[in-house]
Amino acid sequence: MMANHFSTRGKDKVKGTLKPNPKHPSRSKQALISDASATITDRADFKADDIMLGSGLKTLSIAASAATFGSYEYRVINFIFDLGIESGTHTFEQGVSGPIQGLSYVEFAVVGGNEIYYNCEGISGSLTLDIIDHAYYIREFTFTAQDSEQKNITLTGHVSVSSSLCECP
To answer: What is the pTM of this model?
Structure first.
């Protein structure tokens, strides 16, 4: 269950930056542009138009989505971290405990004649994370997942999002 979340929908962007929250003073050095993009094996390039940052009691999650939910083009890249994750290079292996609890990619698929959004769970991967003043920069990530046809796909990209523009802890 998400206790807090923050979304950077395209409509909130003003010339590549986010509208500041009037409850929080602006920071002159804050120039974060929320962004996420990736290349994916045998798929169109991924360019997010919405990024969600959420926290639970023990986890931090980032979900970058492209296209409109309900469309065939809708896709999401998910990252789930331990709440105490620190800057650095981290590796992920499915089923192995570590600061990365999960990586996944969601896409439209037809499974057993049914049209669904299929969750391609990460098998293994790595990422370089920088945490600076409530901003999370996944400088680079690469992970392998299995699609609905049991084929391995590789995702490579980057993500930037900040919690300092919302009322997140």
So the answer is: 0.78
